[in-house]
């Protein structure tokens, strides 16, 4: 490369904007993360909610409904809602807790934690309870969420939740990264890593069953909480020849949800046919809630990669998929 050209390239890199604060739908505050090879992600402060994750070809990897309502108090339908301090309807709070419909702040003063020093496209968010929230859930906490778009395009979310109570009281919560993956055709999708695991079936009174030995495929509504799952789960989009690999830490459970046709029609913020193009696989901590004493901190991490299925030689063999990367 000629020297001038080289210098220009260098300049381009130095000027590169990894993190941009802007406005999204309905004027809501939004942060765009970009990486040099054209990967990108978008995060709304409303909900601390990732609403977009694109690969280097500009293809959207997360599902967001065309009917999503970007307006409080409804959580955004799609992307990655944060379920805290309660997953599901079981508890004293609204379904999936309140973190997904609160406005988070940018945390310019996040305590350091060991990360990859090559990560430049990241944002630190923080949620603390308002006086109103304290009436619903009488606990002080600091919830720090770091969202990183790694140089290779992986999307990483790390949650750090700390008990800040001054009354000496512990608190207990459940949690999930409620990730909506974009898939071409749900009937051509398989999930690997959950076979033979026990699950609670939300469609059958949370009764406990054991999954069969084959990878999971989809032909009707599913709403299951898989228990004590492995740290890697693969979602194979056969038609697009793309595999999502979900890696998780501190989150033993995994929810798998697709509303299918009837429930899709019943949801105001979800298109009737959209169930064909999404699948939720949610890294979670549900069966054994987390209890923190004052001063204690919990961490839960999720990392998503999207790779060509052919890259995982042996393709549909779960062992090969899960060991790659
Ligand atoms: O409609 P939402 O409150 O966002 O919940 C959407 C879905 O989330 C999870 O996957 C639950 O397991 C489902 O039971 C629920 O229907």
From TrEMBL:
User: Binding of substrate: at which residues?
Assistant: 77, 95, 100
Keyword Isomerase recorded = yes
Q: What is its EC number?
A: 5.1.3.15
Sorted alphabetically, the Gene Ontology BP terms of this entry are:
carbohydrate metabolic process
**Active site per the UniProt annotation:** 178, 282
A GO term for molecular function: carbohydrate binding
Annotated InterPro entries: Aldose_1/G6P_1-epimerase, G6P_1-epimerase, Gal_mutarotase_sf_dom, GH-type_carb-bd
An example Pfam family from this entry, by short name, is Aldose_epim
Q: Specify the enzyme's EC class, one word.
A: isomerase
- Reactions catalysed according to its record: alpha-D-glucose 6-phosphate = beta-D-glucose 6-phosphate
Q: Which residues form a coiled coil?
A: none
| Keywords recorded for this protein, A-Z | Isomerase
The family database entries (SUPFAM superfamilies) matched by this protein are listed as: Galactose mutarotase-like
Q: Which GO terms describe its cellular component?
A: cytoplasm
Q: Which family does it belong to?
A: Belongs to the glucose-6-phosphate 1-epimerase family.
Quote the protein name from its UniProt record.
glucose-6-phosphate 1-epimerase
What is the organism field in this record?
Punica granatum (Pomegranate)
Tell me what gene encodes this.
LOC116208683
């Amino acid at each position: 490369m000629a020297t001038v050209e080289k210098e220009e390239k260098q300049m381009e890199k130095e000027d590169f904007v990894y993190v941009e604060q802007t406005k999204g739908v309905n004027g809501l505050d939004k942060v765009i993360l970009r990486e040099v090879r054209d990967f990108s992600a978008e995060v709304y402060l409303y909900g601390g909610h990732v609403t977009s994750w694109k690969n280097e070809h500009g293809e959207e990897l997360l599902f967001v409904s065309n009917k999503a309502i970007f307006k409080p108090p409804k959580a955004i339908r799609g992307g990655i809602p944060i379920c805290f301090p309660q997953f599901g309807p079981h508890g004293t709070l609204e379904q999936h807790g309140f973190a997904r419909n609160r406005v988070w702040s940018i945390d310019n003063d996040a305590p350091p934690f060991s990360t990859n020093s090559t990560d430049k496209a990241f944002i630190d968010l923080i949620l603390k309870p308002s006086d109103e929230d304290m009436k619903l859930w009488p606990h002080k906490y600091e919830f720090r969420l770091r969202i990183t778009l790694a140089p290779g395009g992986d999307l990483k979310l790390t949650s750090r939740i700390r008990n800040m109570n001054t009354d000496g009281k512990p608190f207990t919560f459940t949690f999930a990264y409620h990730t909506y993956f974009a898939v071409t055709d749900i009937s051509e999708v398989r999930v690997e890593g959950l076979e033979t695991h026990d699950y609670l079936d939300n469609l059958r009174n949370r009764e406990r069953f054991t999954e069969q030995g084959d990878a999971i495929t989809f032909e009707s509504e599913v709403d299951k909480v898989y228990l004590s799952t492995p740290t890697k789960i693969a979602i194979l989009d056969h038609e697009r020849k793309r595999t999502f690999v979900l890696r998780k830490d501190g989150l033993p459970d995994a929810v798998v949800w697709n509303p299918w046709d009837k429930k899709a029609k019943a949801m105001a913020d979800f298109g009737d046919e959209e169930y064909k193009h999404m699948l939720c696989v949610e890294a979670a901590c549900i069966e054994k809630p987390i209890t923190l004493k004052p001063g204690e901190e919990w961490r839960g991490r999720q990392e998503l990669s999207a790779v060509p299925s052919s890259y995982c030689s042996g393709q549909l063999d779960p062992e090969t998929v899960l060991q790659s990367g």
